[in-house]
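Re: weekly structure request thread

Next one in the queue (188 aa):
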Amino acid sequence: MNQSAQISETSLVMVAVLPSARDLDIARLLGWYRIPLRSAPKIIAVDYIAFYQTSSFAREQPAQIRWLAPILGHELTTRAELLQDQANHPRAREEYFKIQLGPLLELDTPIPAKNWKRVTFFYTTGERIKNAQNLNDLPVHDEERPILWKALRERALKSEEYQASELPEIALDPAILALLSGFTQAKS
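Done, posted below.
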């Protein structure tokens, strides 16, 4: 079965680095991927994530995209909460996005890096994923670029509206408001 056929041509795709086979196992078995907040792309509300395998993939062909997954949601947490076996890691207290994933889809034909040396994050479309011969075919540099950025902005705004609508309405105690009001007047 053509796994990549599930992705539509208009799907928004974020290409992300997959540093190790352990990270692939986490994505496949536990259904999530992590991105450090300090290096995260501005928009993570996309349809799919395509995983760029680094040179650490000795068993498989390194420097390629072989897997992608639908993104089901995301949350902010710490590295220590994500990787409980690494509680003493130097970055254990740093914030990370935990991207919830659907099932991993294997591309029928992996997308090799060709002459790329390093990949972090970039955006592309489902059409480019389906038709790419190598990584050079994925970035959007032509007349599609404004369309891609408009779609990404709309998705980001929609995501923010959803998150804001999920916040509960909290009735504030008038006594607390009075105390806060007195506190701010005293500071002035």
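The radius of gyration is 20 Å. The first helix runs from residue 21 to 30.
Next request, please.
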